[in-house]
Amino acid sequence: MQIGGGKMAEVLQTEVLVVGAGAAGLRAAIELAGADVPHLVLGKRRHGDAHTRWAAGGINAVLGTRDPDDRWPVHAADTLKEGHFVCRPDTVETLAREAPDRVRELAGWGCDFQRAGDGGIEQRYFGAQTYRRTCFVGDRTGRAILETLVGRAAEVGVPYREDVMVTELLVEGGRVVGAFGVDLRTGALLHIRCRAVLLAAGGCTALYHRSSSRPDENTGDGPALAYHAGATLRDMEFVQFHPTGMVGPGEMAGMLVTEAVRGEGGRLFDREGERFMERYSPEHMELDARDVVARAIDREIRDGRGTEQGGVLLDISHVDAERIRERLPAIVDRFHELGVDVTREPMEVAPTAHYAMGGVRVDFDSGRTDVPGLFAAGEVTSGVHGANRLGGNSLAETVVFGRRAGIHLARTASRNRPPPEASGALARAEERIQRLMEGGGDEEPAEVAADLRTLLSEHAGIVRSGEGVRAGLTALAALRARCVRLRAVPDRADPHFALAANLRHMLPVAEAILRSALEREESRGAHYREDRPEEDERWRRNVLAQGGKGEMMITTEPVADPSDEVRAALEEAEGVDYHHLE
Ligand SMILES: Cc1cc2nc3c(=O)[nH]c(=O)nc-3n(C[C@H](O)[C@H](O)[C@H](O)COP(=O)(O)OP(=O)(O)OC[C@H]3O[C@@H](n4cnc5c(N)ncnc54)[C@H](O)[C@@H]3O)c2cc1C
Asked: Tell me, what DSSP letter sits at residue 356?
């Protein structure tokens, strides 16, 4: 193949291609290596530097170190309740049953979880959990887990390639037969032939103006690659907004300001100095649930009571300075970089997109999607978290379902049969790369991407309405037209090339979020529609988005009932006030 000055694509061949080197991808690959199945792991950054590193607080597993009464049905019940009963109950049960073994396994592989006095793995409360079941490694749990998995993967011989962006999955005769991508460092093209692809490429929160991920992560590649290949997306309207992200320049914008600041006594003020939570939640004040606090801050900002930069003020300066330095060292340092001494002055904060509950629909026993040859695991999938994610459950999800997908792929691997050829699909993927290099106008990819982020934040943000979402869809059509007129980016190693390629991922994901938000005519969990402010029993359903002939099709499907054991746990938990913040 000849593209851009006669460069040939490097062709690699394997049995299973794992797209994503975060916790989900690596956990799956460890199974493949253990079963001697040829495979390759790809990631967009350096090996060991995936988004999982950023997870701080912890991973949930019923170990009973602190609270021996904790049981898997209670973990499942907490998850369903926080997910407003649109999680897949069987999937949630699997998560709750298997997380303890996965955490012990990580510990066995060297993850240095904090220990209790008796030597057991220490556990703490996390928001909306009945018992202490969150295991942690200081405030660097994700990093410790990822380093453990990277180490284990090296031990068992997992092969990987860094700095590669997959731009397209190759589908031939309705089956995924490989992937096409670019080495972001050298600009070299890659064609990977394989019999199965496991997508573990993360979520899509960077499609919002403020996001708690780095700008080149969670850019929607995973759900979009699956969608373009013919897979179904589910519950894309559910995006969790963390109430307090940093208001600052560059990469700092949207970075998480931990709940611990409010847990330590932090108070929220508008620019006139009013402690506005008194109006929204006089009982719980700043410690109410994430969605309540996020909506209150959003309202203040939209009603013109925010700061000039579009935030509100979070003040902890009334707390003893030594205690602040001891309990919140990362926050002290980060704001210091902005010239703010949080022991003496308030921080400027605003809600930030934090987690996408929606994603690819899979069968969680195997990770199988609707498309033969395509599997998925981790944040790219949907079904575990419903309308709102219980903190600490996503790390558990990565290792529980990453392992399951890996086991299934290892069992079904054909090993010696060569992967099918991709001819038409390959030619189309090459053409698209060529078009990006040649351009079609003078639209700047970075500007179009920024406008898309603003569009989604305005029309499908914390508070939505039918009218607002419809206006968003009209604006998206105009933005799509601009994507045809992108300026040429002839150098594939130029970061603008990845940005331009990413627009093809962002468009369908943004559309799926908008269309699903329009379809769900109620408010539930993270999805709040001011024109339909109540939760509606009839909407105990999942919203599905599928590619049709030329347009996205939206349908819905009902959610099954939980098992008797979980139902009993739900009844027991009634009336328990479990908004612990730690
Ligand atoms: C600030 C923060 C704190 C968090 N804290 C917690 C917590 O305490 N507990 C908890 O349970 N969860 C937490 N989460 C959520 C949790 O970190 C994620 O859900 C989880 O790490 C996702 O893991 P993953 O393996 O699915 O994907 P990721 O870790 O996002 O990995 C995705 C991988 O896919 C690769 N990739 C993406 N696109 C492409 C492409 N086109 N081509 C090739 N490779 C690609 C990436 O480079 C990366 O290697 C937190 C999230 C944030 C933002």
From this structure: E
